[in-house]
Known about the structure:
Blueprint: E1 2-7, H1 15-31, E2 36-38, H2 56-71, E3 79-88, E4 91-100, E5 103-109, E6 134-136, E7 139-145, E8 174-179, H3 187-202, E9 206-210, E10 212-215, E11 218-221, E12 225-227, E13 233-236, E14 243-248, H4 262-280, E15 286-289, H5 294-307, E16 312-316, H6 324-337, E17 340-343, H7 347-361, H8 368-389, E18 392-395, H9 399-404, E19 417-418, H10 425-435, H11 444-448, H12 461-464, H13 468-480, H14 485-490, H15 495-507, H16 509-513
Parallel strand pairs: 1-2, 2-3, 7-8, 8-9, 15-16, 15-18, 16-17, 18-19
Antiparallel strand pairs: 1-14, 3-4, 4-5, 6-7, 9-12, 10-11, 12-13
Helix pairs in contact: 1-2, 4-5, 4-10, 5-6, 5-10, 7-8, 13-15
Amino acid sequence: MRALLAQVSPIVGAVRANLGLVLDALARGRTAHADLVVLPELVLSGYPPRDLLDYGGFVAACEAAAAEAVVATEGEGPVLVFGAPTRDAEGLRNSAIVAQGGRIVAVRHKALLPNYDVFDETRYFVPETHVRPVRVAGVRLGITLCEDIWNAPDLFPRHRYTLDPVADLVGCDVLLNLSASPFHAGKGMLRRALVRGKAVRARAPLLFVNQVGGNDELVFDGHSLAVDAYGGLLGEAASFAPDHVLVDTRAVGAGEPRDLPFEEEVVEALTLGIRDYAVRCGFHSAVLGLSGGVDSAVVCTLAARALGASNVLAVAMPGPYSSPISLEDARVLAGRLGTGFLVLPIQEAYDALRATLAERFAGRPFDVAEENLQARVRGALVMALSNKEGHLVLTTGNKSEAAVGYCTLYGDMAGGLAVLSDVFKTDVYRLARWLNRDEETIPSRILDRPPSAELAPDQQDERSLMPYVVLDAILRLYLEDEVDPADIVARGHDAALVHRVVRLVAKSEYKRWQAAPGLRVTPRAFGTGRRIPLAHQWRWGG
């Protein structure tokens, strides 16, 4: 079969616009003389629709759009396969609709409903329990939806299912997988191994069609691919961009899928995440505090890539402990990028707040209360600019800081999108150096100076916390690999530091619950994928 893989970017809830993507793909398939056009999982509703599925009117709108898509297949043309929510006597389903000649040939439902990490599909859908092929145009199609091919104990021993849909589809001529598979760094290699393994097991070509784009904290990288029955590459789509790829399932695969280096794929993911989050929430410009540090420098550079430099306003807000070097570096960076640049000193506002609190604070030493006042003045200023001028506020804190609470509620945490909340500090430096790979955009002095919040005299982050290389190593084990503290110590880390980090992570949970949504680029991000109680008292003996 000549098959068109339609890697599109649906918007959650934009049912009519998403229908347009389906109809455009069908038209492209006709022009290319394709036998088959395949689109992603839940393309009509967008993924993940979450509790929109609880509203009957929303599901009805998806059903009406699906009916229009089916009618559009009238006459000569390819078989159309697309994802949509459907209802039957059992309840709501996550379905693939197969249409040709103006009618529905078959509807197949998702069998494996993920209920881990960011996924919560058992909340909404009824699973298929009897997986069977579809015969259309003289071909037996084995249709699966996303998680249906992720029953692979050798690759993912933690996610075990009693049903293996691919095993029930052995003997089909072609396998399809309609996906909405979120990105995290390195996931492309996992998917490739998975898709190849399933094709070889079923002894049939497999077409994996993934959506692309950003929806809330999730970024979808696309990178759809088709392999032959031996796992050979028949074709692949772009990463982080819509694409349409024509493949022939009768061909013999050749070549290898391309891999992006860690820095490039994370930069592309964050750029796409910023752009789609802003536009889909009705923003066309962004504002951020540009401190002269590496985190805000990277966020500003990414925002300029995502929205265009002329649509980014960088605000330097020097305070009583800010160094002149920081202001100079911020100004240089904004000039190199071509963003707007505004200087709003906070000294007077900070002094006014301290004067208001002077009687209450009398006789007490300068501490975190005065430090955080500075951050909160800055948060109030960027939010005021957002209110007055309509910008999306981008926060600039990283995952290391968010993990241990080295951030200020209603201060540097105030905003609409936390760009780096899933990027450890050591990786922020990696991204900065990659962004500087061709020419120096981020001033090298920003990368060479010790990081500092500049909220107190001679303050340095690594004096207040610990070296970031040590902190991040502990956090990766604890947060991403879910290693118990005792085992982290057994791997060579200092016991006092490990238990300090664990206590700080637990103590700071309430802050993360109030943080702006952040873009997910690792397998274990803060947000919907990590659900730790706020008031728990489990301390692992620490």
